[in-house]
Design goal:
Elements (H helix, E strand, L loop, with lengths): L4 E6 L11 E4 L2 E2 L24 H7 L29 E5 H9 L7 E14 L2 E4 L6 E15 L13 H4 L1 H4 L4 E6 L12 E4 L20 E5 L3 E2 L2 E2 L10 E3 L2 E8 L6 E5 L2 H7 L4 E2 L2
Parallel strand pairs: 1-5, 2-5
Antiparallel strand pairs: 1-15, 2-3, 4-8, 5-6, 5-7, 7-8, 7-9, 9-16, 10-14, 11-12, 13-14
Length: 284
């Protein structure tokens, strides 16, 4: 029986796009989707809380020059009000990153784990601020288990996905390849949970090596030993990297993640599957 491939997929604000970390508030992670003009989806349409939008969140964190956004991956039905009952989590990819996914024959049953740059925040006098003591972290915040793949050069997307940016900008993406990955209705990894969604923050989801002793580097990762074979990392784009022992941590090895790239793929084994199934999705 084919074991699923696991894809670590880098998404959200970073130092080059957006310029700040996405916030962690009360053990919930809010990935900030990157800006994109003329997308038709505005930050003030995205629900951050009962009374506030993502625009409020951005303003509090000092970002004042974006209005529209590239909402992808789209993992939370409730982030936009009034969605239909048949909506599912969805993710689009194009260009070199899509070619990399195709090279590894990503298909139904494979699992995207979305990660990004995060930092803890707090509310002070009704304003959200980054904690002074908070570390910059790479954290896994969401997932999508593939059910369908829609090649937007050849087929039409489901009607509920008509506002997805890879549909809206199909004319721009199509020459480079343009595919939607649609989640399963129910997850095979997380019993009783949907095929795509978000995780509650926990230390198990933190990729950054929290035990590093030298200057802090969020791209210095700790990965389970099951990601390595004879000390060599088996994650794509990292195959020539050697895992280093971490003092005080016998379960993981340390590896410097690459600076570029969006999709990092590995063939799963039982150790990797056990690691994934230790995560805790929540129902919104």
């Amino acid at each position: 029986m084919r074991k699923p491939k696991i894809i670590l997929s880098r998404k959200g604000f970073d130092s080059g796009t957006g310029g700040i970390a996405s916030p962690i508030l009360d053990n919930r992670m809010y990935s900030l989707p990157i800006p994109e003009a003329e997308s038709g989806i505005f930050y003030n349409q995205l629900n951050f809380s009962e009374n506030h939008s993502y625009l409020y969140l951005l303003r509090d964190l000092g970002i004042k020059f974006y209005s529209e956004t590239h909402l992808d991956p789209d993992l939370n039905k409730e982030i936009i009000s009034g969605r239909t009952n048949n909506w599912r989590p969805v993710f689009g990819q194009t260009g070199a990153a899509l070619s990399h996914l195709n090279k590894f024959n990503i298909q139904q049953g494979d699992l995207f784990l979305f990660f990004g740059w995060f930092k803890e925040v707090e509310k002070i006098n009704h304003r959200i601020r980054f904690k002074k003591s908070a570390k910059d972290l790479h954290v896994i915040y969401g997932y999508l288990e593939v059910d369908q793949m829609v090649d937007l050069e050849k087929g039409n997307p489901p009607s509920w996905a008509c506002k997805h940016p890879h549909v809206v900008f199909a004319d721009q993406y199509n020459p480079k390849g343009n595919t939607l990955f649609i989640a399963k209705k129910e997850s095979s990894f997380f019993s009783g949970k949907p095929g795509g969604g978000l995780f509650s923050f926990s230390r198990e989801l933190v990729l950054t090596n929290s035990l590093q002793e030298n200057s802090w580097n969020r791209s210095l990762w700790q990965l389970p030993k099951s990601f390595f074979q004879k000390g060599r990392c088996k994650l794509s784009y990292h195959e020539n990297k050697t895992g280093e022992a971490i003092k005080g941590n016998r379960k993981n090895l340390c590896v410097q993640s690459v600076a570029r790239g969006q999709e990092f793929i590995i063939n799963s084994n039982q150790g990797i599957l056990n690691w994934v199934q230790s995560f805790n999705p929540y129902i919104i």
